[in-house]
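Bit of a strange request maybe. I'm writing a small parser for structure token strings and I need a real example to test against, not something I typed by hand. Could someone generate the tokens for this chain?
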Amino acid sequence: MKLALLQLLLTVAVSSSAHSINEKYHAYKDQSDISSLQADSPSLDDLWGSFWAYQGIQSFAHLPYQQCLQLDPSSSEPLPYDIAVIGVPFDTAVSYRPGTRFGPQGIRSASMRQDKWRGFNYRAGINPFDNWAEFMDCGDIPITPMDNTLALKQMQLAYKQLFKRKAKNSEVPRYLSLGGDHSILLPVLQGLYETYGEITVLHFDSHLDTWAPDKYPSFWSSNTSEFTHGSMLWLAHQHGLISQENNMHVGLRTRISGNGWDDFNEDNEVGFKRIFADELIDSEGLKGVVQKVLDILPKDKPIYISVDIDVLDPSAAPGTGTMEVGGMTSRELIYILRKLKGLNIVGADVVEVSPPFDIADITVTAGAQIAYELMTLMVEAGPVTKQFIESNKKVDTANVGEDLRLTALDRIIKSERDYQLDMMSI
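Reply from user aminoacidic:
Good idea to test on real output. This should exercise your parser:
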């Protein structure tokens, strides 16, 4: 009995020493006495530099904030970050419910419980905010809601500028884009293509998003009307921005067109493999899905991860524009993401989060957590090296002239303007 008591006391003593209290900030110290504070000489940062989760400016996870598009693009100095969050508040290419222009704002608000102080990712064994990479919240791309031709141009130029310069500890920066509807993926892929060449896309979604524009049931059209949140991967393939094979969809469960398998045949032509939501409950389950992803995705190529929040079941993400029942739980999605360590992830997005349709912040909270997991994967991938870029880039983008892959969006814009001028002359 005495021995047990002695061991208990020893354990308490060791525990107390391991968690010794800093007397300077002792919770029970009388801090109403200003003279005692002055005697300890705390800095202004000691006194006023910390916030509770619900306080402070709403940058993502309380990250440093800078409007990065206003940094001088002609400067030869490295950017002050390696991984950045960029908001893309655009939702005028949707085919059903709008509202995702408020997605970046909503996800940032839900991320306020994240920060560097309590940022350790126990699944990965690292704190992504306290590792090799410098993080930044780069604010939003200012995008017009009035004119998709102009909006497309704004996004195109923004991503070209954002990818142009060297990062602080990496050859180029990585960006986590907060949508916005899923059409934002097209200008993202164009910016990535100019840096890396063709990109392999891992696409979490309940929908294919490889639909040709003529699959939309409307007589009326213009050149810009081809640009939608369901056609952007088809356009990316047409313009040579993505790999010709081994792109992947995960979580599919939508209805398809017509009275047969034509949509899947066209999806094959765009270069995608498919994993359906039902496969999550097959005999091999989640582990089988993860293995299938890892078997197909190349290990030596640049990978982009695009997460449409509607890949989750409406019970886990009601705040989105085109819900489909029978989807993943947030736990299942995070499990799959955590198993992707080792891939060369050069960028990612979380899109289609629509706060106007959200309930009790369920969707924005899921979006913020998914964004954190994606940033963890980017940190785990390490700095982007010059050798990796040169080994994958097959096109000299400085000398391609009118190459369709690099001028696709400019061509759309020019064609739309010509079309409008022709209509005015009728």
